[in-house]
């Protein structure tokens, strides 16, 4: 197959890249390893019409790219139900509250959380999301882990537990694994800690009607036979005139390639010649973590009658976080359970039945016996997804961003990069993946128009 451009990976980054290139009049081949599109988003639609987002699902303020894509295809969104109280379990104590944090915690803990939040806000202002490694204190922050920084800045044990798990959980890893500079970069890319920590009026609080699959389908309809599923790319060779992309069943010749797979698994592809050293080392040093996303399906959202929002948090539990993930229909209802990092790694060692029992027991201990009346249990273990590489966001351990960060978006000859990890804005979010696709499409067209040499 001979085309203008080849795109590898049909998550939101690859889908958007291929869409924009085709809309610009170019021929495109989009190769996807799985038998489905969506990457780390995946909507399962059941026979009864219920759709469940088994991966990324929420959108919110400031995510203009994903909203623009939805508007382009006439896809609506709806507000996730949030009325009622949330629950938090910290240091063995239960807090029922309305808002962002339980103000019924000790005044010392609340004050400590507020101080840390203000400090993070000020630190984020020093970060240029396009070049966080150039921040005045970049090296110092990159030599510090998120856990180490919390050791020095949280004096309240409840505050420490809440902040450690609420942030490290986003990266599906332990706080000791994550660079402070990376945490600040990711927060700054979303406008600061308010959005990342889910502060009211700044959090991802909307869902797509029909799930993320509604967007996938619209894009795929426009791409037509440019999309090729079940084609894991094995090698990409580049020369002075173009690139040759090979899967088990296809050979694609193109002027340039856009690789839009998670940075943690790019090394599964054999590049010829080898990628520049910094890019190769970056890929070796940006891992993903472990995460389970589980849907508990009920006939009705019984927690609302109890005055609860469905949101709860308990560090160290097999149900770390619960969220009301019901659709825009009144029935059935869905309570989403997300467990990340060390707890998720422990869960992988259990049998399916042991995990199911542990999760339901944890939710019932929190919400009461009604939690046992579920009609279905849908478990998604992203940790073992070969073409995801683990959790929902790749993170940078200490020392990585300042040494190898500039390689995140830098083209390697005729090979360009997309995917949420390559986005300077909304890093790690679906919106970031869409933005990366928009950027990559413009980038390859501009390079080709200027005849930029490899």
Question: Can you walk me through this structure?
Answer:
By secondary structure, the protein is an alpha/beta fold. Strands 8-7-17-18-19-16-20 form a seven-stranded mixed beta sheet, sandwiched between helices. It has a five-stranded parallel beta sheet with strand order 10-2-1-14-21, covered by helices on one side. α1 runs parallel beside α9, α3 packs across α6 and α5 runs antiparallel to α6. The protein is globular, with a radius of gyration of 22 Å. One of its GO terms (molecular function) is oxidoreductase activity. Keywords: Oxidoreductase. It comes from Mycolicibacterium rhodesiae (strain NBB3).
Furnish the topology, listing elements before pairings.
Elements: E1 5-8, H1 12-23, E2 28-31, E3 43-45, E4 51-53, E5 58-59, H2 64-72, E6 77-79, E7 85-90, E8 93-97, H3 107-124, H4 138-142, H5 146-153, H6 157-168, H7 180-189, H8 193-196, E9 206-208, H9 212-223, E10 227-228, E11 233-238, E12 243-247, E13 251-254, E14 256-259, E15 270-272, H10 277-285, E16 291-298, H11 302-305, E17 308-314, E18 321-324, E19 333-340, H12 341-347, H13 352-367, E20 376-381, H14 400-404, E21 415-417, H15 430-449
Parallel strand pairs: 1-2, 1-14, 2-10, 7-17, 11-15, 14-21
Antiparallel strand pairs: 3-4, 5-9, 6-9, 7-8, 11-12, 12-13, 16-19, 16-20, 17-18, 18-19
Helix pairs in contact: 1-9, 1-15, 2-15, 3-6, 5-6
Brief rundown of the structure:
The protein is of the alpha/beta class and 454 residues long. 33% of the residues lie in helices and 20% in strands. This is Monoamine oxidase.
């Amino acid at each position: 197959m001979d085309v203008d451009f080849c795109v590898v990976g049909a998550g939101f980054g690859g889908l958007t890249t291929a869409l924009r290139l085709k809309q610009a009049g170019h021929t495109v081949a989009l190769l996807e390893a799985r038998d489905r599109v969506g990457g780390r988003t995946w909507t399962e639609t059941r026979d009864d019409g219920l759709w469940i987002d088994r991966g990324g699902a929420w959108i919110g303020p400031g995510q203009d790219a994903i909203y623009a894509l939805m508007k382009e295809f006439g896809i609506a969104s709806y507000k996730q139900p949030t009325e009622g109280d949330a629950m938090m379990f910290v240091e063995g104590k239960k807090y029922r509250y309305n808002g962002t944090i339980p103000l019924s915690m000790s005044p010392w803990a609340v004050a400590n959380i507020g101080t840390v939040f203000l400090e993070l806000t000020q630190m984020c202002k020093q970060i240029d999301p396009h070049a966080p490694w150039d921040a005045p204190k970049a090296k110092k922050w990159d030599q510090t882990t998120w856990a180490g920084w919390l050791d020095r800045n949280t004096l309240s044990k409840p505050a420490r537990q809440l902040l450690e798990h609420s942030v490290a959980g986003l990266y599906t890893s332990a706080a000791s694994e994550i660079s402070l500079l990376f945490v600040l970069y990711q927060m700054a890319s979303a406008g600061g800690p308010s959005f990342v920590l889910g502060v009211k009026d700044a959090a991802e609080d909307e869902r797509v009607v029909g799930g993320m699959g509604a967007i996938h389908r619209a894009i795929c309809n426009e791409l037509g036979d440019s999309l090729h599923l079940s084609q894991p790319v094995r090698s990409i060779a580049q020369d002075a005139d173009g690139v040759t992309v090979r899967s088990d069943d296809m050979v694609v010749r193109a002027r340039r390639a856009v690789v839009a797979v998670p940075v943690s698994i790019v090394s599964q592809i054999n590049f010829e010649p080898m990628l520049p050293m910094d890019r190769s080392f970056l890929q070796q040093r940006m891992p993903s973590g472990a995460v389970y996303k589980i849907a508990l399906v009920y006939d009705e959202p019984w927690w609302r009658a109890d005055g609860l929002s469905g949101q709860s948090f308990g560090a160290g539990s097999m149900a770390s976080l619960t969220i009301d993930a019901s659709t825009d229909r009144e029935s059935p209802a869905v309570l989403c359970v997300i467990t990340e990092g060390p707890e998720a790694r422990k869960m992988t060692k259990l049998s399916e039945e042991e995990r199911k029992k542990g999760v339901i027991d944890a939710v019932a201990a929190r919400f009461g016996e009604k939690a046992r009346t579920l009609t279905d249990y849908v478990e998604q273990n992203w940790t073992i997804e070969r073409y995801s590489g683990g959790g929902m966001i790749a993170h940078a351990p200490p020392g990585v961003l300042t040494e190898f960060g500039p390689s995140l978006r830098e083209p390697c000859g005729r090979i360009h990069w997309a995917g949420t990890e390559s986005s300077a804005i909304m890093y790690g979010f679906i919106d970031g993946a869409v933005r990366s696709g928009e950027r990559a499409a413009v980038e390859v067209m501009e390079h080709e128009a200027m005849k930029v040499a490899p």
